[in-house]
Structures are given as C-alpha cells and as structure tokens.
Amino acid sequence: MKEIDWSKLSFGYMKTDYNVRCYYRDGQWGELELCSEETLNIHMAATCLHYGQEAFEGLKAYRGKDGKIRVFRPQANAERLQSTCRGILMPELSTEKFCEAVRMVVKANERFIPPYESGASLYIRPLLIGTGAQVGVHPASEYLFVIFVTPVGPYFKGGFATNPYVIIREFDRAAPLGTGTFKVGGNYAASLRANKMAHDAGYASEFYLDAKEKKYIDECGAANFFGIKDNTYVTPLSSSILPSITNRSLMQLAEDMGMKVERRPIPEEELATFEEAGACGTAAVISPIERIDDLENHKSYVIAKDGKPGAISEKLYNKLRAIQYGDEADPYGWVMIVE
C-alpha cells in the first residue's frame, strides 16, 4: 500500500477490498458472507428508509509495533448494538457472530491497516438495517447486517490538542426516554443543524444541555463529556446520552490511577470549576476542551487556561492508546487480536 500517504489521511471513506454481510430472514440470521460490492440493493419500502430502523457502531483496529493487529473492545460494541436492537425492535446479533464478522472484515482488508506510529487506524463500521418492505409503522421481517472498514486519520486535524465548543440551546440531539441511549442515525440527523451552526461560528463542535430543563450537561456533539477536578473524573448521568465505550474505558483507567469517578447530573454552572475537560469517543479518543462559550448568556467557561491539554487528560489518553496499540499490557481483556 505504498500509494497511500498514511500521514495525510482524513477521517473519511476510502474504498477497501471487502465488506462482510449477514441476512436475517425467516426468523434467523444466516451465515457471514464476504462481499466486494460497495452498494446495497434494498426495497424502496424498507423500514430503514421510512421508519428509522437503522443502527450502527464504530470501532477501530490498530497495528502494533509487534506487527499484531488489535481491535479495541468489540464485545462492548456488540452489547451496545444489542441494546439498540431492543430499543427499536430489531433482531439481536450475537456477540460471537458480531466479533466473528469484525475479525473477518479486518483480516480481509489487512493491507489497509495503517502502519504503527502513522497516526492513522482502520475504522470499522457495523451497520444494521431493516430491509423488509413495510408501509404501516411496524418492525420489518427482514434485516441486513453489514460491516465495512476504511483507513482514517485523526478526527480533529490538530490531533491531541484543545478545541473550543459552544453551547447551543435551539436544538436537541435526543430527548429523555427517547433514543439518545441508542446508536441510531436519527440522533445524528438531529444534530446536523446545531453542528453546522457551531462550525460556521468557528467552533470544533456544539455542546448540548439536557433537552428537558436546559440546566445539565448532556453531550459534546457526538461525544461524551468528562470533567476533572480535585482528582475526580466526573461525567454526566443522563437518560439521553449514548453510553460511550471510550468513556467507560477512561473511567476504569481513572479509577485505577487512584482517582475518584462520579457519574451524576452536572449543572452547566459547574463548568467553571473544572481543571480539565474533554470530549471522548472512538473517533478522537479524547478531544481536550479549551473553552465552552455560552453566547446567549455572554459567558465563556475557559478550562485550558494555557490553551494546552491537561496533564491528567494526557495521561489517560496515552494510557488508552498504549493499550490499543499493544505498547502496554491489557489487564482488562479489552483487546481482540486478529490473526
């Protein structure tokens, strides 16, 4: 793959050799199939197109210094997809079949896994859609599970550097008791206008408060929020936040570093008390927050006073990345090695 400049990859789509597919028909899942076609042939009345019966996941594969290929926490992604399936009435794919599909697609596209220390990785996108034709608002009888992969560079061009965020109250990403805890496309469609507003105003992303009262912190764009103060890792507890696998991992690492971990509602005004803060997710791992502006109330919560990532955030970031790349031992059993 000498023709790819790994250091200049964007976080976008690049054609690779194969994807993996599996069909649900007659009440059961079929066998995994390797496919080289990039497009899907689905019925125009498919429930994914009309009623949002669609779920997806995101995870990554990394090439280590030892040449081994590691996938980070695929079991957790399988479990989250199963939770989404229960939420929008789609058939669950077993953890074993999910991990087998991940292993198959990564192995089939091994030549697209960026080299160690290139700053790039192989992004893995599982997708589950309702393909059965349905005009009434009901679950489909047939489904398609697909996994494709693409090599990607850093989500934010600056890499591990602080970014500014802006509170936007005009739009909600998800509502309490809605689909916020599930990884469905509708939540992301609902965020597009707010995200564009933030980008047009010069911010890295939008910052959401809770949809019900507009008092508590919800999410940073498509990522979970965490704040650090008094040797405590604080992250929101909300019924409309997607449970981030990266955030769960960081909580575990913080606890093992001797920090206290709190999951609780965080009122907006508490932003003024954090020594460090970040947005976390699969794409960027951690995006440290420089400041969060509240333009409506003419406030700016400046978190990174010197404009640089905080020491604890950097330590957490480096620790998690070291496990993902195999530079440090994985005592948690998070990594799946593809051979």
TrEMBL record:
Gene3D superfamilies: 3.30.470.10, D-amino Acid Aminotransferase, subunit A, domain 2 (3.20.10.10)
Entry function: Acts on leucine, isoleucine and valine.
Electron transport listed as a keyword: no
EC top class, as a word: transferase
Positions of post-translational N6-(pyridoxal phosphate)lysine modification: K183
Metabolic or biological pathway: Amino-acid biosynthesis; L-leucine biosynthesis; L-leucine from 3-methyl-2-oxobutanoate: step 4/4; Amino-acid biosynthesis; L-isoleucine biosynthesis; L-isoleucine from 2-oxobutanoate: step 4/4; Amino-acid biosynthesis; L-valine biosynthesis; L-valine from pyruvate: step 4/4
Protein family: Belongs to the class-IV pyridoxal-phosphate-dependent aminotransferase family.
An individual GO BP term: L-leucine biosynthetic process
Alphabetized UniProt keyword annotations: Amino-acid biosynthesis, Aminotransferase, Branched-chain amino acid biosynthesis, Pyridoxal phosphate, Transferase
Catalyzed chemical reaction(s): L-isoleucine + 2-oxoglutarate = (S)-3-methyl-2-oxopentanoate + L-glutamate; L-leucine + 2-oxoglutarate = 4-methyl-2-oxopentanoate + L-glutamate; L-valine + 2-oxoglutarate = 3-methyl-2-oxobutanoate + L-glutamate
GO molecular function: L-isoleucine-2-oxoglutarate transaminase activity; L-leucine-2-oxoglutarate transaminase activity; L-valine-2-oxoglutarate transaminase activity
Annotated organism of origin: Phocaeicola coprocola
Keyword presence, Transferase: yes
Cofactors (names): pyridoxal 5'-phosphate
Organism classification: Bacteria, Pseudomonadati, Bacteroidota, Bacteroidia, Bacteroidales
Protein name per its UniProtKB record: Branched-chain-amino-acid aminotransferase
E.C. numbers: 2.6.1.42
